[in-house]
Amino acid sequence: MRKLSLVIIMMLLLFQYEAEACTSVIVSGKASPDGRPYIFKNRDTEGTDNLVVSVQGSRFRYIAIVSAKDSLPHGVWSGHNEAGFAIANTAAYNLNGKPQRPSGVQQGGGVKDNDASIMRKALETCATLSDFEHFLDSLKALGPIPTNSNFAVLDAEGGCAYYETGNKGYVKYDANDPAQAPYGYLIRTNHGMSGDRTMDKGIERYLAINALMTQQAFSQEGFSFEFVIRKVTRHLTHGLTRLGLYDFQPDDDRQPVFFPFRDFIPRYQTASAHLIQGVKKGEDPLLTVSWVIPGSTLTTVAVPLWLTAKGELPSVVTRNDKGRSTLVDAGFQLKGQLFPINRGNGSDYINLARLINKSGTGILQQLTPVEDEVFLHGKEVLLTVRKNGRAGKETTDFYHWVDQYLTEQYHQRFNISL
User: Which of 225, 231, 152 is nearest to 192 (CA)?
Assistant: First the structure.
């Protein structure tokens, strides 16, 4: 017990606050089980109120995660468009040297706002990695690029790469290049490999996801998209200390049992997760699918989304008459049970008994079979869509089913109305 107390104290001393602390992995089609590349982002931010939109851009329609308060929207945090182009980012705090406001026009007053604006413009106009490179070059021609991000990008031609982008330009890391990605995947948290490595951030989460992907390389499942969107997002082993929360499960949830909870891949500030699965070369780009967890990954389930001609989405993930996502709001209610201490540093401590326990009544344990059912139906639709060559009525019917099913399940299991 004394040894455990010392370890916990050490954990607390090591924690550092990061305002934008995302985790990402990209996997080449050469390494994925079905030959389709994907990009993934677990988003951490103070602005946790998100939702999903389908927007007709200046050139392409796109699906994206946006801030609920951004009603137009001006910026997006990840998404894919009808050309099969997809993009996500993580802040890279070491690309521009010591923190400073870059020159050039600033939207919203900060670099992170520019990241969102860059991604929106890319989704509206880009079809390929080459298009994105030309877009970045055009920004550079106007002056320093107002960003400090690792942009994860894929296209319908099999392209899959990170662009470490700062004020002075960008460096490309190609997941299809064996010299750069010998196992067909690349990882980023909150530092770039081309930046000042003494300024690295997100090391704990980098260690965690790197260990997971290394282990997965030798598993029968391989680098499946389902493993990443469902397991990586809920990974409860700390990358630095190697403490696993499943080793400390309480017997039940009758009494709160608090545990330090910082710098795991899922965090108090985790706002969403998004995995965008591309297409094989020659397939219709409209077969690109977004697997989206629009809220906290510990309290919200993943839903597959396709672009449709009319821009339909499940009503629970997009903007309701209050300007919010009802599924995200339901997740917030459950998140309040996981983090009930709202004074001091209460958000650093999770009620582990309410999350997972040996009786199986934890929130995460109750949501797993719900998500199982969504994935079962979603993959059936995906097979039909791929067989038919593009999304059709089956996707719209699936969206209606998702609305009804999740409304029933959150009410039955947690007495929460969607």
Answer: 152
State how far the Cα of 70 lies from the Cα of 31, in Å rounded to an integer: 36
Question: Which helix (H) or strand (E) is 80 found in, with range?
Answer: strand 78-81
Residue of 288, 277, 302 whose CA lies nearest to 377: 302
Closest CA to 122 of 93, 85, 94, 159: 85
What is the Cα–Cα distance from 183 to 72, expressed in whole angstroms? 40
- Provide the residue type at 198 as one letter: T
Q: How far apart are CA 238 and CA 267, in angstroms?
A: 11
User: DSSP labels for 263-322?
Assistant: SSSS-TTEEEEEEEE---TTS-GGG-EEEEE-S-TTT---EEE---TT----TTTS--TT
Measured distance CA(85)–CA(316) in Å, rounded: 25
| Helix, strand, coil % over all residues of the chain, rounded to 5 | 35, 20, 45
Angle among Cα 145, 50, 29 to the nearest 5 degrees reads 65
- Judge if pTM exceeds 0.90: yes
The encoded tokens of residue 12 equal 């607390």
Q: Which amino acid is at 88?
A: A
DSSP 8-state secondary structure symbol assigned to residue 384: H
Number of helical (H) and strand (E) elements in the chain, helices listed first: 9, 15
Consecutive sets of 10 residues in the chain, 418 residues long: mean pLDDT of each?
A: 37 44 96 97 95 96 95 91 98 84 40 85 98 97 95 98 97 98 97 96 97 93 96 97 96 97 96 98 95 98 95 97 96 98 94 98 98 97 91 92 98 94
